[in-house]
Amino acid sequence: MQNVLYEDNHLIVINKQAGDIVQGDKTGDRPLSEIVKSYIKKKYNKPGDVFLGVVHRLDRPTSGVVVFARTSKALERLNKAFKNRDVSKTYWALVKNAPEKTTDTLTHFLVRNTKKNKSFAYNRPEKDSKEARLTYTVVKKLQNYYLLEIKLHTGRHHQIRAQLSAIGCPIKGDLKYGFDRSNKDASISLHARMLRITHPVLKTELTVVAPPPADPIWNACL
């Protein structure tokens, strides 16, 4: 498997490709979790079922770092770390419109609409809303786009997509949140660039960086 960023007996970290689903859903498409299970089974010649725990997810059109647990103990500890926000996530996003400030912390109140599979961002609390916070920095000006680096402080449904759209900076290719055209491969230009966690067993700090998709615009960001 070319997209393995890190693996040991306790966990495996994958650079998810845009279009992959992390866990099975109503589409019936083969999820990344099953692909990784097959890889482990074949590589280590494992008999019977392979254990693989889904710790977190990325939206289907998004690429980047995804970690899976290889043991129930690792799954339990990683779940706890993600729940308690004891992880550091950094994302890259390409936007066409420059934000007003080169760096800022955004706070919105998101209301999730499950029928539309979309979150709506408001400047003040609304019924059933959840506070969402992120910090962005413009790290590079490209010919037609701006590269933003984003640190998440909360983990809400479609949070980065909704919050950037709310300040007039929808992500390249993200029709759902206001970009004017789709990317050719139906991806959106949002990439989970880095994940920093405490290893669930070794207790050492683990930092994993995922190369962005092989694409001329992403290549210009490196």
Task: Note the topology.
Elements lengths: L3 E4 L3 E6 L15 H12 L9 E2 L8 E7 L2 H12 L4 E8 L7 E11 L4 E5 L7 E12 L4 E7 L6 H8 L23 E9 L6 E5 L6 H4 L3
Parallel strand pairs: 4-10
Antiparallel strand pairs: 1-2, 2-4, 3-4, 5-9, 5-10, 6-7, 6-8, 8-9, 10-11
- Tell me the name of the CATH class: Alpha Beta
Query: Level of helix content?
Result: 10-25%
Rg: 18 Å
Instruction: Name the structural class.
Output: alpha+beta
> What is the CATH topology assignment?
Pseudouridine synthase
Largest sheet: 11 strands, mixed
* Binned strand content: 25-35%
CATH architecture: 2-Layer Sandwich
Cα distance, first to last residue?
23 Å
Number of strands: 11
Mass-distribution shape: globular
- CATH superfamily name? Pseudouridine synthase
Domains (count) = 1
Q: How would you explain this protein's 3D organization?
A:
There is one protein chain. The protein has 222 residues and is an alpha+beta fold. It has helices spanning 32-43, 72-83, 159-166, 216-219; strands at 4-7, 11-16, 53-54, 63-69, 88-95, 103-113, 118-122, 130-141, 146-152, 190-198, 205-209. The protein has a single domain, classed as Pseudouridine synthase (2-Layer Sandwich). It is built from 4 helices and 11 strands; from the N terminus they run ββαββαβββββαββα. Strands 1, 2, 3, 4, 5, 6, 7, 8, 9, 10 and 11 form an 11-stranded mixed beta sheet that branches. Strand 8 and strand 9 form a beta hairpin. The longest helix has 12 residues, at 32-43. The two termini are 23 Å apart. The mean pLDDT is 96.
